[in-house]
Design goal:
The complex is a heterodimer of chains A (410) and B (344).
Chain A: H1 25-28, H2 33-42, H3 72-97, H4 111-120, E1 126-128, H5 134-139, H6 148-152, H7 161-164, H8 175-189, E2 201-206, H9 213-224, E3 229-235, E4 238-239, E5 242-243, H10 255-259, E6 263-267, H11 271-286, E7 292-297, H12 316-323, H13 327-339, H14 343-366, H15 385-399
Parallel strand pairs in A: 1-2, 2-3, 3-7, 6-7
Antiparallel strand pairs in A: 4-5
Helix pairs in contact in A: 3-4, 3-13, 3-14, 4-11, 8-9
Chain B: E1 8-9, E2 21-25, H1 26-40, E3 44-48, H2 64-68, E4 73-75, H3 80-92, E5 96-100, H4 111-118, H5 121-124, E6 134-139, H6 154-158, E7 164-167, H7 171-183, E8 188-193, E9 200-204, E10 216-219, E11 224-228, H8 231-245, E12 250-254, E13 257-259, H9 264-273, E14 276-283, H10 288-299, E15 309-313, H11 324-327, H12 331-342
Parallel strand pairs in B: 1-2, 3-4, 3-5, 5-6, 6-8, 7-8, 11-12, 11-14, 14-15
Antiparallel strand pairs in B: 2-9, 7-13, 10-12
Classes of the chains: A alpha/beta (410), B alpha/beta (344).
Chain lengths: 410, 344
């Protein structure tokens, strides 16, 4: 059974005519054993329309619409990307556990979706992330240490969105979908759409965000303005503790039809498919045929954030089922079986990831406290006299605690 | 206000005549300001529901789409978060969107994008992203409209760090303040008193306007100070004229900028008069007028001869139109507050 065949909960209404004090039947209904199994399958099977180029067993399969050739070098690069991204993600998680970060947002399990999408983008394209897109950040050329400030509390994002082509992390769910749409409209108004050299925008959001009005409005705006916009939804099955069935009654990729543009479901744990579909979608946008909705069918293997406890709301079996679909492992098997990748290659990637993790950790420990004046700087492009007066007063106050200068007579 | 000696032509509404001094409605002034901005900067866009062929529900954008095209004047889908949210993205791309919200009470679906993104991106990006967006909001009551069409939500935005909030009160200010707001690199919430849209006054398009974020003394007087903004400026000026007939000279300050507030002219005035009456259509509690009252007692404590008094709307949802005459501050309520201040 695929998600397309989800069953609605049976309503045990009309069983008796007794006057009841229980809650309404729709919420009181307990799922049957079959429904529990169907739910499990719904979160682990992408259905017949899932675009896949690499099976969980590492077998290369073809697809009539999205088959592209990858060189052995490209495959190794994608593997390396995913291993490095996973490594600094795990290091971020560990640093939070050690009290070095206030919070971390793990991406474990979503490396293929993000690296595939990120590597499909060109330098002049623009990415609008939510807050879990560490893998996309990596592909846009950000040093992972640039992500640390947000979680250590020293800044709200220190990178330059315009020069990196990677907008700041957006925490309010779905806001970035509209911001991305506006940016993509700007690309179109600038005449940067229409041929192979065209530009495109890719916006990242989760399955939970699809319930937000902003994501709906982004699809309306994107559609009626023919914006070069790829809406990349990482359906990781859970919006913190709320399952996908609390967000939708139809598979998410099918929503696109209602807005008048293509929707595609890709195996989000297959980096090759993610890249191929993203490349196709971006090309469509470059040529003026956007928007496109991509639903990357994947799974969040860790908590929503380090403050979350997924053992309260999801079954261990579900996680175990998804471990068998691990995005890194399937490419590793493929490289060994089909491309003669030897232990040296894997050792090299391992060593590189160890070095990255060490550098990431050291950078975190060494991050300086921001200067108190930062509270008041860049609030406005044209300084506000109100903020300036508050800044001056606060800095004067802090100066009162400064040690008096040494010198003079003893 | 002394205007320089120039040829004067009453061009009225709908005219495309160009002379430095014209007598125009506020709606026309705003239209001229957007027209001028669209002409001088190809990155300026006008966007909102019905701003195209209809010219906006108040006709403030009349003719702009016809002259500048659908890619400069965007009649958008009907969703306020979408209007503000896409304007944020366009600003990131280097555009200068001027958004129109049809009525004050409709801005709330866009509040999230204003507060969460528009107000914060410059700070969050440490100045790397500039949010040059203007959000035009027709506000205030007195037009006999159904609910959600007569509100004064400006204090909600004045409380938000990262956006600037201004309110115009006459055609000349409407023109210059909007031009300056569009040129400003910060997001500006631009409140337009809708019941004054069709009142006419002189506009000099070659004048040297005061800076945008400043207040302005409109009438000199020594008995008491009235500080106000937007639709109640006209009311307070009328009250001052009535008081003058009885020998009481009131000073009237048009605040113009609500965030940041330019209170030096108010402080200076209160130090002379010793009395301050604040007038606004907005509910009183935790409002712009509350802020001014607090700051005036902080700065002018020893000059005050009477407590700061306020004449405002009430802390209730905006009432049905048959009751709005009791809700809106009118000339008599303003004068009653002045009398109470003078009686101290």
């Amino acid at each position: 059974m695929s998600p397309e065949h989800w069953t609605r909960p049976a309503h045990p209404a009309n069983e008796t005519d007794d006057v009841r004090t229980e809650p309404p039947a729709a919420t009181a209904a307990k799922p049957t054993r079959e429904q529990v199994i169907a739910g499990l399958r719904a979160t682990s099977e992408g259905g017949a329309d899932l675009v896949q180029l690499l099976t969980p067993e590492g077998q290369r399969v073809s697809h009539p619409d999205f088959d592209i050739d990858f060189t052995a070098e490209q495959l190794r690069d994608l593997y390396r990307d995913m291993v490095l991204v996973r490594r600094f993600d795990r290091e971020g998680n560990a640093l939070q556990r050690q009290g070095q970060l206030g919070i971390w947002v793990p991406l474990l399990g979503q490396e293929a979706a993000q690296v595939g999408a990120g590597r499909a983008m060109r330098p002049r394209d623009m990415a609008f992330p939510s807050y879990r897109e560490h893998g996309v950040a990596w592909c846009r050329g950000l040093d992972p240490t640039e992500l640390l400030g947000i979680f250590r509390g020293t800044d709200h994002g220190s990178w330059d969105p315009l020069s990196t082509g990677f907008h700041l992390y957006t925490i309010v769910i779905g806001n970035q979908a509209l911001n991305a749409t506006g940016y993509a409209m700007g690309q179109k108004f600038d005449g940067k759409v229409g041929d192979d050299d065209g530009e495109a925008t890719m916006v990242f959001f989760g399955d939970g965000a699809t319930s937000q009005g902003d994501v709906h409005e982004a699809m309306v705006w994107g559609s009626v303005y023919d914006a070069p916009l790829v809406l990349f939804c990482q359906n990781n099955q859970w919006a913190i503790s709320e399952p996908l069935e609390r967000q939708t009654r139809v598979p998410l990729y099918r929503r696109a039809e209602g807005y008048g543009f293509p929707g595609i479901r890709v195996d989000g744990n297959d980096v090759l498919a993610s890249l191929a579909v993203s490349q196709w979608a971006l090309d469509e946008c470059r040529h003026g045929n956007g928007p496109v909705l991509i639903e990357a069918f994947t799974y969040r293997m860790d908590a929503h954030t380090t403050t979350d406890d997924p053992t309260r709301y999801r079954l261990t079996d579900e996680l175990e089922a998804w471990k068998l679909k691990d995005p890194i492992e399937r490419l590793r098997v493929h490289l060994v079986r089909e491309h003669d990748a030897g232990q040296d290659f894997f050792d090299d990637v391992q060593a590189e990831s160890d070095a990255l993790a060490a550098r990431f950790r050291d950078f975190c420990f060494a991050m300086p406290e921001p200067d108190p004046s930062r509270i008041f700087s860049e609030v406005y492009a044209e300084e506000s006299p109100v903020v300036a007066a508050q800044r001056d007063e606060q800095l004067r106050y802090l100066d009162g605690f400064a040690e008096p200068a040494q010198g003079g007579a003893h | 206000m002394a205007a320089p000696a120039m040829e004067r032509t009453d061009v009225g509404d709908g005219s495309t005549g160009r002379s430095a001094v014209q007598t125009v409605t506020m709606a026309k002034s705003l239209n001229l300001a957007m027209r001028s901005a669209l002409e001088s900067d190809p990155k300026v866009l006008v966007m909102g529901e019905d701003v195209g062929k209809l010219g906006g529900v108040f006709r403030v954008t009349d003719g702009l789409q016809k002259d500048f095209g659908e890619h400069r004047v965007l009649g958008t889908p009907l969703a306020e978060s979408g209007i503000i949210g896409t304007a944020v993205g366009l600003a990131i791309r280097g555009y200068r969107p001027v958004c129109e919200i049809q009525f004050d009470g409709f801005i709330f679906p866009g509040y999230d994008q204003i507060v969460s993104q528009l107000a914060k991106l410059h700070f969050r990006s440490q100045g790397k992203v500039t949010m040059s967006v203007v959000v035009r909001v027709p506000f205030g009551g007195g037009i006999g409209a159904v609910e959600h069409h007569s509100e004064s939500p400006e204090s909600l935005f004045a409380h938000v760090a990262g956006v600037k909030v201004v309110a115009c009160s006459n055609p000349a200010d409407a023109y210059w303040m909007l031009r300056q707001a569009i040129a400003c690199d910060d997001p500006v919430l631009f409140f337009e008193p809708k019941r004054r849209y069709y009142e006419k006054a002189e506009l000099d398009t070659e004048a040297q306007p005061p800076p945008l974020f400043t207040s302005r003394v409109l009438r000199r007087g020594s008995a008491a100070t009235i500080a106000t903004y937007g639709p109640t400026v006209h009311t307070c000026l009328a009250a001052a004229s009535a008081a003058a007939e009885e020998g009481t000279e009131l000073e009237v300050v048009d605040l113009r900028s609500l965030s940041p507030l330019d209170l030096e002219p108010v402080f200076e005035s209160v130090r002379r008069t010793g009395r301050l009456v604040l007038a606004s259509e907005a509910p009183a509690e935790s409002s712009v007028t509350s802020e001014i009252a607090a700051r005036v007692q902080q700065e002018c404590f020893y000059s005050l001869e009477a407590p700061v008094l306020r004449v405002t709307g009430f802390d209730v949802p905006y009432p049905p139109t048959k009751l709005e005459k009791h809700y809106l501050p009118d000339l008599d309520r303003v004068l009653d507050a002045v009398d109470r201040s003078l009686a101290f």
